[in-house]
Every structure is written in C-alpha cells, then in structure tokens.
Amino acid sequence: MKMRIRVLLLLFLFEVHSHAASRPNFVLLMADDLGIGDPGCYGNETLRTPNIDRLAEGGVKLTHHLAASPLCTPSRAAFMTGRYPIRSGMASESLVGVFIFSASSGGLPTSEITFAKLLKNQGYSTALIGKWHLGTNCHNKTDFCHHPLSHGFDYFHGIPMTNLRDCKPGEGSVFSGGIRVLVFIPLQIIAITLLTLAVLKFLGLAHVPPGIFVCLLCLAAMILGLLVCFLHYFRPLNCFLMRNHEITQQPISYDNLTQRLTADAVQFIQRLVSPFIRVLPVATWCLVISMEAGETGWSF
Asked: 13 falls in which pLDDT band (50, 70, 90)?
C-alpha cells in the first residue's frame, strides 16, 4: 500500500513538473512608428532587416492586423488589454492624444485586465522593460495607480512617459507650434500696442498713463519668464528613467539606452526558473531617430 502511494505521489509530481515545463515563455517586442512595409520580411527591398527577417522565417508571420490607434498611448492600451482604447477611457479627442507630462493624473485604469495580470495569476514572472506611456499616478506622486506594477508586472525598468525631441538637447521641440501661438503672437501684439501708444503719446494725440506701459512690459516679461521656465524644467520633470517605483536617472540620457535595457532584459530571463513573459517596448525615438556612434549605415 505504501509503495502504491509512493508511486502515485511520484507520478503526481512528474505530472505537475511536466505541466509546468510545458508552459511556454513569452518575449514580446514592440516598436513605435514601425509600418508593416518597413521590415524586409514584408516586402521592403530598400532597407535590410536581416534579424527581423530571420525571426519571420523561423516563426509565424501575421499579414492581417490593424492597430487600434496611430498614437502611442491608446494603441498601447489596446495592446495590453485586447480592447478598443475608447472602452478603457484611453482614446482622447484632444490635439495631443497622448500623455506628455508626468504630473498627468490620467492612465490605464487598474480595473482593466491586462495579459500580464492573467499570466501572473497562472504563476508567470512578468516584466516590462522599455517604454510604458500609460500613466503613472492618480492623486499624488507616490500612489503609482497607473504604474506597470499595478497592472500585473512584477518588474519595470524603463521610461514611464514618452520620447520627445525635448528630451534630448539639440533635437528641437515638439512645442514649437504652440509656442508660436501662445507666446510669440501675444508678444508681437504687446510690442505693437506699446509702439502705437508711444507714438500717440509723442504726437500728443492721446494721454497714456505711464502705468499702462509698465503693465504691458510686466505682462511681456511674465510671458517670457513662463516660457523660459517651461523649456528649462520640462526635460528633468518629464524625461526620466525608472526601475520599479524608483527614479534611476533624471533627466534621462539616451546614450546606449536600448543596449542598457536589452542587457537588463537578458539578465531578467537568465535568472528566472519559472515561466516568464517579458515585454520589451523598445524605447525608440518617436519623432526623431537618434543614432549612436558607430551605428550609422547599419540595419537591425
């Protein structure tokens, strides 16, 4: 009887081990602004993408898929949940349509069921290494209600917001159009008003109190001051790197960033025994592709 129990116990343990060993591991790669016609495996004969083509040859190549949105934030929400972004409140009608400021209270609701939550409930180790862009906090800077760790991921290392030209010195600004409308045009109006009032006063055609000139000059100085503060503090306040809940680099340096995050992802895989899913939304430049030294002329 004891021998039979031992045999049954061994068979049970073997079955459990076989079941655990049969569960696959997942590595998901995501790239911003990559069209279906960009990789060579989908017909691009201009740029060479040998590594991506090799993956396609050894796996399954999907030929019919539509992104839920052309923007980072809503398309990521759909990718994580499998639902249209409008159903989770992640579809915006504003001109921007994505999260730009770290102080934004919006983000992917914790009530949404992500594939990371489902796999974590099945015993998977989950990690997201790269760009998140689905919000961070709700009410204060430490609640982390929209953080990846609140959506089923055990580990996060990457950019909580997005990549803008403003995050790297010398690459320009995405706010140029807004600055022209909200700053330069009002300053031009103030300058024309000052000049007109000065001419009218000089010609004796109007009595202009000195206080009006002072107020207009103060208004112009205030507008310029706000512009300088915005441009100066935007990068350190919104362009930073996080590991879990800790800020590890502020402002972020994009030198070898992809290599650093890739190395961390490889280490995450190597140190795990249990089944895992690792999501790598590559921290590419959304608006400007910035090449590292020695990478010019190469395809990946």
From this structure: very low
